[in-house]
Amino acid sequence: MTVELTVPAQAGRPGLLLRPWRAQDAEALAAAHRDAGMKRWLMTSLDGTEAARRWIDEQTAAWAEGMRFSFAVVGQDTALPVGHVAVKRKTAGAPSAEIGYWTSAQVRGRGIAPLAVDAVARWALGGDRGPSLTRLELLHDVDNTASCRVAVKCGFPLRGELAPHPPKFPVAGHIHALEPGGSA
Ligand SMILES: CC(C)(COP(=O)(O)OP(=O)(O)OC[C@H]1O[C@@H](n2cnc3c(N)ncnc32)[C@H](O)[C@@H]1OP(=O)(O)O)[C@@H](O)C(=O)NCCC(=O)NCCS
User: Fold this and answer.
1) Protein residues whose CB sits closer than 6 Å to any atom of ligand 1
2) For site-directed labelling of 173, which of 11, 134, 137, 156 has its Cα 20 to 30 A away?
3) Is residue 50 pLDDT above 60, yes or no?
4) Ligand 1 nearest atom to the CA of residue 153, by list position
């Protein structure tokens, strides 16, 4: 059964639909990845529509395996993907996972990422047909202040700093984590 999450419309902002990525999204996905901000801050770089198609196929397979739940964030006014939120397990059946996200350059600064991350976090941590996780981690480079703001707005407490680990992680990071049943 396809998981669909919704964020109701608010004054001045259309509603959002969050649903698994589909093959038809490949062009919009490739277009979003042309942005310099995506290239700078994300580990995954998708160069063109073919790469986007392959990535969508991988997300579909990983969802079926219960390893990664990747949502396209779609504007209910245009039905086009404007963002992404993924919950990623390191090992099968693990009770904790990492949450990652981006929004397209054209829609940044409108509070879309916090709304989308909040909706997916509730689904991932709640008992309502989600994976019923007990801990969600949110990691970002210390100088990614926009991402840090998303973490704070979604109520992910800062748990500590991660030392740089070059070449993959040349700068220090923040680790935020949400544990509804654990310590605040
Ligand atoms: C981080 C990111 C997901 C935020 O998404 P968003 O939908 O713009 O979220 P918000 O509207 O809540 O903005 C968050 C912060 O971005 C900054 N911001 C505001 N307008 C912006 C714009 N037009 N462009 C870039 N950043 C902007 C502000 O610091 C804002 O915080 P504030 O509301 O307290 O002022 C988005 O900037 C992005 O996709 N960046 C590239 C990929 C990335 O860094 N992903 C996270 C990896 S850990």
Assistant:
1) 37-38, 41-42, 101-103, 108-114, 140, 144-147, 149-150, 153
2) 134
3) yes
4) 12
